[in-house]
Amino acid sequence: MSLERFFNQAVSSWMSAEGPDSEIVLSSRIRLARNFESNKFPTVFSHEEAKVIIDTMEDILIKSPIEKFDKMELLKMDEMQPLQKRVLVEKHLISPQLAEDSPHGAVLLTENEEVSIMINEEDHIRIQCLFPGLQIAEALQAANEIDDWLENHIHYAFDEKYGYLTSCPTNVGTGLRASVMMHLPGLILTQQINRIIPAIHQLGLVVRGIYGEGSEALGNIFQISNQITLGKSEEDICRDLKGVASQLISQERSAREALRKTSNIQLEDRVFRSLGVLSNSRIIESKEAARCLSDVRLGIDMGYITNMPKTILNELMILTQPGFLQQYAGGPLRPHERDIRRAALIRDRIKMENEK
């Protein structure tokens, strides 16, 4: 398999597949943080010590591949161009920290990109499983199977009282971060989101933007994840998150129906105006593109638009990010040049759909 596939193909298989409640929940993610027992943590280790971790992981992969999952490829950060790393961030396959602050890092990726194992990020190992729709339990099961596979070869840093030991105290315990990525335009348009977010925080969960901590909720897409890893079991954390996600799904559906009843023609007008902008713009900035794509996806979900697939939001939200635009261009682009290419790419994609 060519490694260029990871950089040139916009939509991972987990994003293009249908999952439970996928009109609202784009994906479910489980991440497990683990560290080697006898090695310094990444916050203090040397280049040579970092290389030992990568070599160990590569040796495990070669000598004892995990059969249930797709073949894995090892990508080393110091062998990749900045644009290539940025593309992997935009596809949610690695974290911004691994791309920007971990020159001695690496990632193991399965061919379908449902599984990524980040090496030498904030911790020695971060196992990540991404599933379409609301499939938190399924993603947890997959992550645990990979965790068990690695634990057959690695002695983890573990304390009987505190659980798995991690670089950041907030991850001590299970080392688990569970999250769902949700498209919530109805709650935005009905102005309910501002009262809902504080209530979610009170339940020990956190709401972030599309690329996690410090990012914006572009295109009305939010990530909801757990804050607490100590004192709760993995199953409890995932059950609590699924409960909140299920409530948000119900509230979002109710908000959409309320909009249909009270503002149907205005909503339909908004959807088709956004479709017109995307279909005809010659220059479009990323924020405007995200907003219009959100409107179009809402229009698809509510039956106003019938000739486009739901996955067009997933695809174009990734394709129109700066890294992908520059990857396709073959090099760096100035912001204005990116806006022109973004508009052209969206026009071409919509035209292709209309011609089917």
UniProtKB/TrEMBL annotation:
Pfam families: ATP-gua_Ptrans. One of its GO terms (molecular function) is ATP binding. Its EC number is 2.7.14.1. Keywords: Allosteric enzyme, ATP-binding, Kinase, Nucleotide-binding, Transferase. Appears to be allosterically activated by the binding of pArg-containing polypeptides to the pArg-binding pocket localized in the C-terminal domain of McsB. InterPro entries: Arg_Kinase, ATP-guanido_PTrfase, ATP-guanido_PTrfase_AS, ATP-guanido_PTrfase_cat, Gln_synth/guanido_kin_cat_dom. The keyword Transferase applies. It is an enzyme of class 2 (transferase). GO terms for cellular component: extracellular space. Residues 24-255 form the Phosphagen kinase C-terminal domain. ATP binds at residues 27-31, 92, 126, 177-181, 208-213. The keyword Membrane does not apply. It catalyses: L-arginyl-[protein] + ATP = N(omega)-phospho-L-arginyl-[protein] + ADP + H(+). A motif (RDXXRA motif of the pArg binding pocket involved in allosteric regulation) lies at residues 338-343. One of its GO terms (biological process) is phosphocreatine biosynthetic process. Catalyzes the specific phosphorylation of arginine residues in a large number of proteins. Is part of the bacterial stress response system. Protein arginine phosphorylation has a physiologically important role and is involved in the regulation of many critical cellular processes, such as protein homeostasis, motility, competence, and stringent and stress responses, by regulating gene expression and protein activity. Belongs to the ATP:guanido phosphotransferase family. This is Protein-arginine kinase. The gene is mcsB.
